[in-house]
Amino acid sequence: MSEALLDIQGLRVEFGDTAAVRGASFTVARGETHCIVGESGCGKSVSALAVMGLLARGARRSADCLTFAGKDLLARNEQQMSLLRGDRMAMIFQEPMTSLNPAYTVGSQMAEVFTRHRGGSRHAALDRAAALLGRVGITAPGMRLGQFPHQLSGGLRQRVMIAMALMCDPELLIADEPTTALDVTVQVQILRLLAELQRDLGLAILLITHDLGIVARIADRVSVMYAGEVVESAPTATLFADPSHPYTRGLLDCVPVPGKVKPGDALGSIPGTVPRIRPSFAGCGFRDRCTHAAPVCAGTVPRQHAGNAHEFLCRLPPGWAATGQAA
Amino acid sequence: MLRFALRRLTVALLVALTVMVLSFMLTRVSGDLAISIAGASATQQDVEIIRHAYGLDRPLAMQFIDWIGRAAVGDFGESFFFKARTADLIMDRMPITLTLGLVGLGIALLVSIPLGVLAAVRENTWVDRLVQLVAMIGQAMPSFWLGLILMITLGLQLGWLPISGTGSWEHYVMPGIVLSFSAIPALTRLTRSGMIQALGSDYIRTARAKGLSRLSILGKHALRNAAIPVVSIAAVQLGFMLGGSIVIETVFALHGVGFLAWESISKNDFPVVQAVVLVLALIYIGLTMAADLLNALLDPRLRAS
Amino acid sequence: MSGTVVMPARRRFDWMRRTGLVAGALIVGLVLLVAILAPWITPHDPFVQNLDNRLAVPFWMEGAEPDHLLGTDGLGRDYLSRLIYGARISMLIGLLTVVTSGVIGTTLGVLGGFFGGKVDDAVLFAITCRLAIPVVLVALAVVGLLGSSLMLVILVLGLLLWDRFAVVARSTTMQVRNLDYVAAAWASGLSTPAILVKEILPNIASHLAVVATLEMALAILLEAALSFLGLGVPPPLPSWGLMIAEGKDYMFFSPWVIFVPGVALFILVFGINLLGDGLRDLLGAGDTR
């Protein structure tokens, strides 16, 4: 395993009396695609915003360790963070329709990232923008540079967002549900593009999604989040083959697999909803919905290893599902 | 865009026509003009002579068509008091009023945009509340009284600025400040709400994710979008300010159109009053139309459609 | 290793708003009380001149007479008494103008908002025309041509200041019209006028109340401006605007003669605005500025 590019240990984010993220830990290696999955409200987007330093006013962030490329992000103020953002770490969002400024042309919005971080002339920046628009599969990039966002379709805008994120050759690209708002066919194209870029540019991608189909398609590694915690983290194949946290199992049971599910079979579902967690909450966040819950689940939950680079957060022993030890 | 402009123009023309009728009616229904012109000492016979001489004995509709036909080519008749062409009088005085209006608007924008941005950036803090309090104080300030207070303090006691007249640019500073007070509250509130909306938008999150400087995020990305409604309201406010400058011109003895109107009203010089009302209304109509078109030009989304 | 970035939490300043509402209500209530009780609380007759005792100074200056707390004006009339009677004029103008313009504007706005279509087009056109008319100038012209009187000022301002009532009544009626209980009223066979009065009006009343405060403040300021220009309330009535106009001749030597009525005017208008702002928050009337 290569050196960790992004190392997050014990990340906590609180808004008022709600704990959105409580002690989440995961790492992203250089050049890997790391997916974070979970239901909405589980804290996956907030974790990403916390890494970027983009949390809303009033949010409280703390962590045992938050480093990017060996730099301690906790020690950086807003000004110092802004020098990293858009340069070495970039982010794209779920809503391509509203994420671009309606008042400026595509070219102007792309060029300003480059001139901000790399200096140089606007002309050189526009040249780079045109080249990148071509790289993300936009035809006639020269014409697109002069257009306003409202003149582009959703898929095109997300491609523009991606190209804009690549302006300064970042080491990390955080993509927060980048395809959720798009048509299915466009989703596939955007995912393929991300995978291609990751391969060609050696970019690390932290992809946030609720869609396990996307995970299976492009992730090297997956972290499952639930109620503000990373409950399981493993290489993609391992996670799908040997899900070790009851929540992960439940999540996988919800996905119909052609051939395995006969028409008429009931799809799996997890009873209940994600609880609202207060800062004082202790123990396993899933215990109210878990069929294996026991009194000890209200105490500190152990972090266990179930093999190579496979961790999960549960009282149950590794391999419980296979040996039927669950009780 | 062209269709929008044409429709906007049609509405403006209809409004202008209505205002013409109203400003004509204004002087006709407000009593017997012949008696007003003739003065208190005139005999019944004098009044009849004047009535005939000014054509006031003809049917109202005839008088209106006659007046509107002349007004359309810029002929507002002759002033009773100044013994000069009304159109010339207004043209002579207009630069002073326009200068005053623009100075007032300029000061208002210079004050209200930074205040509104500051309040939005510090939304729901004491800074925000303070800005809103300042806006409310501005709204409650009687303009003519503020003018007098400034004359006493800045003019007489400190001697920084001339008290009245139109000799130099310094003469416009105090009236400009006073006039700006009428527009500052509205413009500040509009800038504030526009900035709050813009700052909460996705494209500002993108701008922050791009690592742009705070100045660029606030000044370039947020303000540009928040400024679109501010620009159109500023134009409308300029219209209100020109209409309201009569009070300030009188206080500071600035011989602009407002002062002319006040003199004419005091002298029962109805062709001038009528013409000033009409001209100011037409300027307002023109400004609001220009504001709508400018709005469409500033917003790329409207420009296309 | 542990680090915490505490970002400034959103602090609420609600107490400031509530203080504003209470302060506004107190100011307006006090002025109203003074206006009503004027004949019983004035130390002197506000119209009686005393040319031997002109421009007596107010209490905070040296040589003030205890008999004339706020001094006397250029004709030797007691300034405090004139100020108290001036409150009557301001409140009278403010309230009556709001009633007049409120009736006109609300009627137009409700009709336009409720019926939509051609009716609404006509109402919108009327509002547009009204906004194009310079208020101060037209009010001055009418008063100038007809001669100044209190009732005329009220009538003219009432006929001019209905635009914001119409705008707000129109937009709120549009919102209320589509609500379920209005549909239910239709279904139960209530007549249109009954629906307008029983269902629409009570539901837009809070918004109209906020507009009423704004317009009352505006009417008071406009009356003062008209009177100041000599084309509003006729002398010797003690309108605050007129008091400032009369004091203008002495203001460089005795600034307090314009200071006193101006501050009174400012405090009253500020109080009404505070009240309106507080009401807006209290009633959740949204943005009616």
Topology diagram in text:
The complex is a heterotrimer of chains A (327), B (305) and C (289).
Chain A: E1 4-15, E2 18-29, E3 33-37, H1 44-52, E4 59-63, E5 65-68, E6 71-72, H2 78-84, E7 89-92, H3 106-118, H4 122-135, H5 141-145, H6 154-165, E8 172-176, H7 184-201, E9 204-209, H8 212-218, E10 221-226, E11 229-235, H9 236-241, H10 246-253, E12 303-305, E13 311-313, H11 320-323
Parallel strand pairs in A: 3-9, 3-10, 7-8, 8-9
Antiparallel strand pairs in A: 1-2, 1-4, 1-5, 5-6, 10-11, 11-13, 12-13
Chain B: H1 2-29, H2 33-38, H3 44-53, H4 60-72, H5 86-121, H6 126-140, H7 143-157, H8 173-180, H9 184-199, H10 202-209, H11 214-252, H12 257-266, H13 270-298, H14 300-304
Helix pairs in contact in B: 1-4, 1-13, 5-6, 5-8, 5-9, 5-11, 5-13, 6-9, 7-8, 7-11, 8-11, 9-11, 10-11, 11-12, 11-13, 12-13
Chain C: E1 3-6, H1 14-41, H2 79-115, H3 117-132, H4 135-146, H5 150-160, H6 163-177, H7 180-187, H8 192-228, H9 240-247, H10 256-283
Low-confidence stretches of chain A: none
**Radius of gyration from the alpha-carbon trace of chain C, in angstroms:** 23 Å
Largest sheet of chain C: none
Order of helices and strands of chain A: EEEHEEEHEHHHHEHEHEEHHEEH
Shape call of chain A: globular
**Main β-sheet of chain A: number of strands, strand sense, barrel status?**
8 strands, mixed
Number of helices of chain A: 11
Strand order of the largest sheet of chain A: 7-8-9-3-10-11-13-12
Which chain pair shows the most residues in contact?
A: B-C, 56 and 49 residues
Number of strands of chain A: 13
